[in-house]
Design a protein that fits this description.
Layout lengths: L1 H18 L10 H18 L3 H8 L4
Helix pairs in contact: 1-2
Amino acid sequence: MTMTMAGLLILVSVAMGHVYGQLDVTKFGWSWFLIFIGANLFQSGFTKWCMMTNMFKAVGLK
């Protein structure tokens, strides 16, 4: 539930920044990185699968 809410808050804040003209998501930049992180957190909250967790485990990190 925590990852779902964190992802949702990231996506909502990016959307609000775009709506109010503070963030331009029509250009490729760091804002798309935030959208990717928010979407990944949101989906991992439902599926219990996170690509970053698997990559950390593969290199021996906890």
